[in-house]
Q: What sequence folds into this?
């Protein structure tokens, strides 16, 4: 086995409960985003562009779609002779074997996998976030600091700080304090859930954490605080690009709408940092004579005969004549019937909004959702947003 | 299920009257339909029909072909044993280059003899844009006990591209065939897809060459029409014959008809092509697009009407694109305008430039030109 300096472990077991019907049969990393992608495409593409050639993907919840999507990693160029992508679900051992109890336990259970590659560093990332980041720059900082662990951080608005793991750092960037979702945040530097560990240090920490009875086996709650207490060399690495946790219906919708700005913070057509994904093999989109499309992102295989404003249409969406789609996200293969109105909504994969149906409204604060495969046929039915 | 049939896409001396579009590429890799190359259609039809082994007989200007099809992964032809074989001409000296396709078939005969479990061969070209089910053609071939079955298309409206017309009798047997420029009065044209047994093909190759004949269709088949049962199989679906500029333009524009779009791209399986990982197309606030086909990665601020935009095309503010085809990464500058134009890949139209071709004779800009 060829030696890898740094390998990545990608946590893709997230249940995404707050995404409601959108994650009914789907792990959160497999949720669609940006007209073409699934959330996990961003982290996988980041790995490839950062020169990381070995990626272990830890799956757990609803793995069917995700496993099929990942395959052997071909779309991301991760089907390599040595290394490449490996999907790592929890497995049965002769004495039991359990589900991954927490993020740290998931890595603990795969110490054997990591040791086959004998890396110097391990990058821990999660498949729940949308961002473009060069992990190699972070690794350089990690080495420069002779750190045991480096945590990527981003400045968040003070009002949101209590939703994140919050770090306090000294002038050298060394972490002095870490608090998971603090009520009174001491700073507005939030952990992005991207960690680089020197492998011997992490290995030791994982083994000791596993032996700890009351531990929840979580990086943010257990591993990092313990290392901090033991005065390990913990450094922060500042990232100032676009980063978004799309954990709720609201934030998923918002992140999609962010792409429609005149100068979006997250540029998708950056030729030097393409986001790779599985190709759906669909023809060029057809825009009919009576169609109107403005301020939108539209993918291959769509057939648009209605009006589409400030919306994101995934592949194979049909928007029939006389309909209106506004401020909405329409997932792959969905159909918007003739004369239907879809406003401030997310319409799931292969869902059908029947002719004349109405989903969402301009006045609603919340986002209306039509689940995957759901069929709305009653012409008079009004699907309003349900508070999540 | 796999068919017991080998595929051959024969690019040797393809009839090509495409001018600048084939200046630096073979006909097989001319971009078509917003995101494809001509060869994608035949290749995808073969794969979707269950043909597991396909050879492409390359001949000239095949750099773009090698780049496009690579190992065949995108067509699911990257396999153990079977899969894709790109066979460039195997020649002893320069003069072999001009020899007919049968000579090259002969040089590649190992491809046929080594493919032992395959009883049949379909020999086709790359410029007949269609979605053909070869399983049905083979079924027809076997049922009617033909020696050779030719996939044909009836079009009372006449053909724009250059095609070989055929005479078919009531029994469905071909009684006469012409070259691409003849005056045969028939509304049926050969789609240049020939199904026959491997044994007969090898026999025709050797016996024709022995008589000094080196063209597969013009000589081996035409001169044996009375001796062999050569049947026509009429293709019901849409066909675009794309080997001259007027055929290219007319058939491209036909894709703007939703019935043609559906039948070509969705009826019998997807059309595969090289993956480019372009993001979805961006329509800006000022975009005004109607009756058009738009591939991924485009960025549209201007007006696009009755046109086809390939991947990664940029239409700046105030620009107007009408009745035109803009290939990959084309740029139409601010307030520029195009009407009845075909722009090859990476052509840049500077701001305020106006280009206009005739309705029946579009203006053609060659690759990477800046106007």
A:
């Amino acid at each position: 086995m060829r030696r890898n300096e740094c390998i990545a472990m990608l946590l893709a077991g997230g249940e995404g409960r707050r995404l409601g019907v959108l994650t009914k049969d789907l792990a959160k990393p497999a949720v669609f985003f940006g007209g073409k992608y699934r959330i996990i495409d961003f982290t996988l593409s980041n790995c490839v562009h950062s020169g990381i050639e070995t990626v272990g993907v830890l799956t757990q919840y609803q793995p069917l779609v995700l496993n099929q999507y990942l395959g052997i990693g071909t779309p991301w160029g991760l089907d390599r002779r040595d290394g490449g992508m490996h999907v790592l679900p929890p497995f049965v051992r002769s004495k039991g074997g359990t589900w991954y109890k927490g993020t740290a336990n998931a890595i603990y259970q795969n110490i054997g996998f990591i040791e086959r590659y004998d890396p110097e560093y391990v990058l821990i990332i999660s498949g729940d976030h949308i961002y473009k980041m060069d992990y190699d720059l972070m690794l350089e900082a990690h080495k420069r600091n002779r750190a045991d662990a480096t945590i990527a951080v981003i400045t968040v608005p003070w009002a949101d700080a209590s939703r994140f793991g919050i770090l306090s750092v000294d002038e050298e960037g060394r972490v002095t304090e870490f608090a998971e979702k603090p009520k009174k945040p001491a700073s507005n530097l939030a952990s992005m859930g991207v960690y680089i560990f020197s492998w011997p240090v992490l290995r030791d920490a994982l083994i000791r954490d596993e032996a700890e009875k009351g531990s929840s086996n979580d990086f943010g709650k257990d591993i990092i605080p313990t290392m901090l207490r033991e005065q390990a060399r913990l450094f922060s690495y500042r990232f100032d690009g676009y980063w978004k946790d799309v954990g709720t219906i609201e934030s998923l919708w918002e992140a999609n709408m962010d792409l429609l700005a005149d100068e979006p913070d997250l540029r998708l057509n950056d030729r030097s940092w393409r986001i790779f994904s599985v190709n759906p093999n669909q023809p060029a989109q057809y825009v009919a004579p009576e169609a109107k499309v403005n301020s939108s992102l539209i993918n291959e295989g769509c057939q648009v005969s209605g009006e589409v404003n400030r919306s994101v249409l995934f592949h194979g969406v049909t928007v029939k004549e006389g309909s209106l789609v506004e401020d909405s996200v329409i997932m792959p293969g969905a159909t918007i019937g003739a004369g239907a109105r879809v406003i401030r909504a997310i319409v799931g994969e292969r869902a059908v909004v029947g002719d004349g149906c109405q989903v969402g409204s301009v006045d609603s604060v919340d986002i209306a959702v039509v689940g995957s495969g759901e069929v709305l046929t009653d012409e008079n039915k009004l699907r309003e947003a349900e508070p999540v | 299920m796999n068919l017991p049939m080998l595929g051959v896409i024969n690019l040797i001396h393809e009839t090509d009257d495409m001018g600048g579009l084939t200046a630096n590429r073979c006909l097989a890799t001319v971009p078509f339909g917003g995101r494809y190359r001509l060869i994608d259609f035949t290749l995808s039809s073969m794969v979707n029909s269950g043909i597991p082994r396909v050879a492409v007989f390359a001949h000239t200007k095949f750099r773009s072909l090698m780049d496009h099809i690579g190992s065949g992964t995108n067509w699911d032809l990257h396999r153990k044993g079977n899969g894709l074989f790109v066979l460039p001409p195997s020649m002893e000296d320069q003069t072999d280059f001009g020899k007919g396709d049968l000579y090259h078939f002969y040089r590649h005969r190992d491809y046929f003899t080594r493919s032992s479990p395959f009883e049949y061969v379909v020999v086709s070209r790359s410029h007949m844009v269609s979605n053909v089910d070869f399983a049905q053609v083979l079924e027809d071939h076997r049922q009617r006990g033909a020696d050779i079955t030719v996939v044909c298309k009836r079009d009372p409206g006449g053909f724009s591209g250059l095609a070989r017309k055929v005479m078919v009798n009531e029994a469905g047997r071909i009684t006469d065939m012409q070259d691409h420029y003849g005056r045969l009065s028939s509304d049926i044209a050969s789609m240049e897809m020939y199904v026959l047994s491997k044994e007969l093909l090898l026999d025709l190759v050797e016996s024709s060459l022995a008589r000094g004949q080196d063209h597969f269709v013009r000589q081996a088949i035409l001169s044996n029409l009375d001796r062999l049962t050569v049947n026509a199989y009429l293709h019901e679906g849409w066909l675009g014959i794309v080997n001259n500029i007027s055929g290219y333009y007319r058939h491209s524009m036909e894709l703007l008809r939703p019935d043609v779009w559906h039948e070509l791209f969705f009826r019998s399986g997807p059309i595969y092509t090289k993956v480019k990982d372009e993001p979805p197309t961006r329509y800006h606030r000022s975009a005004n697009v109607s009756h058009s086909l738009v591939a991924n990665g485009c960025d549209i601020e201007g007006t696009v009407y009755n046109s086809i935009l390939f991947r990664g095309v940029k239409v700046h503010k105030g620009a107007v694109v009408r009745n035109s085809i803009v290939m990959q990464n084309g740029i139409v500058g601010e307030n520029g305008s195009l009407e009845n134009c075909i722009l090859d890949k990476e052509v840049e139209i500077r701001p305020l430039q106006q280009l206009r071709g005739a309705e029946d004779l579009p203006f053609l800009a060659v690759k990477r030109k800046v106007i």
Chain B has nine helices and 28 strands. Chain B has a mean pLDDT of 92.
